[in-house]
Design brief:
Layout lengths: L1 H6 L20 E6 L15 H7 L6 H11 E12 L3 H10 L3 E11 L6 E7 L6 E2 L3 E4 L10 H4 L9 E4 L4 H9 L3 E4 L5 H11 L2 E3 L3 H9 L4 E2 L6 H12 L17 E3 L10 H6 L3 E3 L6 E2 L3 H9 L11
Parallel strand pairs: 1-2, 3-5, 3-6, 7-8, 7-9, 9-10
Antiparallel strand pairs: 2-4, 3-4, 11-12, 12-13
Length: 316
Amino acid sequence: ANETMAKSGFPDFEVIKSDIRECPKEKFDVVVSNPPFYEAKKGRTSPDFAKRISRQREDLELDNFFESARNYMKDEGRLSFILPYSTKQEAFSSLKKSGLSPYILREVKHKEGNPPKRFLCLCSKKELPLVELPPLTIKNENDQFNDEIKPFLGEIPLREEFSFFCDSMLYRLAKYLRFSGIDAAYLKDADDDWLLRECQRSGRTLISLDRELICRFQKKKLKCFEPSSFSPKEQYLETIEKFSLKESNPRRCLKCNTKVIKIEKEKIEGMVPEFTYKTHKDFYVCPSCSKITWGGTHLERFRKEVLENIELGEKI
């Protein structure tokens, strides 16, 4: 756990070694786990009890695991986990018993055409429709890692050349940047100290109208930008010009900034208004919050009101 957190660039973290079945002292927005993959006494069995129970369900069945995970989640929290594909039905049954609703499912394949070996799943305490994403394929036909995998192995940068963090006063700007496919993080309740640490850790450029905060960033030689206007449209145009930004594909979820994934139209039938389903060809889903989007009047309005004064390459 220490090695993983250090490699991910998190300077401040705490490792707690305990039995997860014990009642937690606090609850969390996100719970992530790779629970024991194998049934007891199957696969390689280690003589070390601690190592053995991390691989095999000798002391923790799926029912116990999901019940414990639910106890760690806030009411609006989510659980993310990975398991062998062969356990999918068992896992879904256990989720239901534990009062958790899977809302994103993604098969993991070694190569295109191979059967899935694992599956990734996101769950909520709320009852949500299940969206099945296109499979995550690890390697291509040349036995090289696919582009979606490379950032997590350090082969290519995890973030794009320009990635931003808009402070609490600049939500509209963050939304405009996301409309254009530009990486723009935003957190309403982030305080100045946290913003400084996060931008230092992630390498993001802070965009803020707070002169004092900008000065703190400059003293520490951290990347920052202070727009001169209070108008979101003018802030957007200033940011585009300052950093010579181009539109990026794929576009991003307006809610959580994640790159959306194109999804087969048939897989979302009944999840969008009937008229929308019949009149649109291309649909996209956010792999983080499961929000489904399509080209609509809000995009046309954005083009007209904001992009008419600037060239961003191809249309959104």
